Amino acid sequence: MADTRHECEFLLIRYVPDPVRNEFVHVGVIVREVSGPVAAVKFTSDWRRVRCLDPEADTGMLEGLESELRRRFREEPQGNLMHVLEDSFSNSVQVTRAKAYLAESVEAGVEELMRLYVEPQKREKVSRLSGRASIQLMMRTEFERAGVWDLLRKKISAAEYTRAGDPLRIDLGYRTAFDGNVPGGLVRMFQAVSLETLSGAGSGAEMAKVLAFSEAGLRAGVERVERVSLELTAVVEPLRQGTGNRDQGSEELDSERVEAYRFAVETMEEHRIRVLTTSDLGRVAETARLELRV
Length: 294
Hints:
This protein is an alpha+beta fold. It is built from nine helices and ten strands.
């Protein structure tokens, strides 16, 4: 069979918190056809390596950069690649020199290079993800599948709507287009709330109470700033109860876990927070696609 691979070139995107020390971690890949304007970019969705290098890293900025590059490539398909990159990158983000590469397609090349250079242990890492990180990854996967990830706001600062100093950040959100049923549209926000751990500092119950406490201020702020209503959604894991033979102690522990799970869910619902599980994300993403008219 004839070789149908395309002549491409690729560049690696590096996060470099301190250019003097020249320590870096690869965070993304750009691939483009040599003979055409087709280009694709993808960043990692697992920022743990970045945070190991720089605990203060602004991952929201990096996610925003990915969306900005995709937008520029769509709007300037014939534009100078390096000019686009120079306009978009900050001092802490660098790009390697272009290297030749044969790929079945630009998209396939991106996935292969991500495995080789950016996420060499991706399968192991995904299996280890738990808690909020696992829910956030599932959220991103479904919104990307629906083609709306780049249209969403990420890491939304609650201080924009409440008061200066509010540390809460909401994972994702968007404003719906005008709809006859919702005059002026609606702001939808989504927060991953893991209920795997339901006691102690940083537990799901604690996060649920923080979100419940913040809801009224967020709602009032959105109505004041955006002049539309807010729908705040918490995305949680489905409740999983133990199975098989269990002694009395494990049954009591399981009962306590169910009660704590229900407490967290009911606390949020009492404060007008919609609670969905990760199994609902496909439907949520499809709704976003329709409302954003992609």
